[in-house]
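At this stage, I put together one protein's amino acid sequence and its backbone structure tokens, which the following lines show:
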Amino acid sequence: MVTTPMTFVATAATAAQLGAEIVFADVEDATANIDPDSVASAITPSTRVVAAVDYAGQPADLDALLPIAHGAGALLLEDAAHSIGSVSRSRPVGSIADLTTFSFFPTKNLTTAEGGAVVSTDPALLERVRRFKLHGLVRDRDLQRHPDEGGWHQEVHEFGLNYRLPDVLAALGSSQLTRLERFKARRAAIFDRYVRELSDLDGIRLPARVDGIDPTWHLFALRVLDGRRREVYTAMRERGILVQVNYIPVYWHPVFEDLGYRRGMCPVAERFYAEELSLPMFADLTDDDQSRVIDALREILS
């Protein structure tokens, strides 16, 4: 699998647990999304999956990645944990890649408290996903190898796991869906205010926007320059402002170090990590609290 190091470890860990070899491609400097040129250099005829991650809510360049993946006979997977509700060149996230995964963790743009969802443009692939989430069970007699065993009969053709979302959590997600556009609009207003009120501040680099992309912003990924990221992180936290760093390059984790991965593999991603600082960004962030974040950052960097 070819994937990005600028993501939560689960993107790569799930494939590694299945025995896949993970190849990390570098990211674009402007967006921290996986760089199609780097993917083209990393992909081989044995690659089965290219996994892109929509960092901070901006979809990766799927139009460039699709022919690269398909040219090698690989599937394009979009990790859209950050980007539900985002639109790429008039197409909603989930309608472009072969397979798209969403996270509904409490910190995400839409939540079911835990769990997630999978969508696909390929009906056959989606049917495999449906079976996988229920231990791989095949109950359709027309698809069974031994359909005359009895009315109780069920078969497993491919191993699966238990990924059923409880009804009460699904109900929460359905309720959240009715408010997704409002969440998106509020996050956009918070993002725009950060840009407007921090644009004259020295020592930082603001997030980039991509033409043709209408994101549901998940992170406000600021770049703190001149080696001051740790200083700013500590000072903000001391003021009770819960900034975060997203993410440690995946192959820096000891579990990947122990597999032979070494620092320096993806220099653009590592430079991005060294500077990145996520400011508070959630739909219920009040104007007063955002003012406190802005004022504190300006004070620290002045």
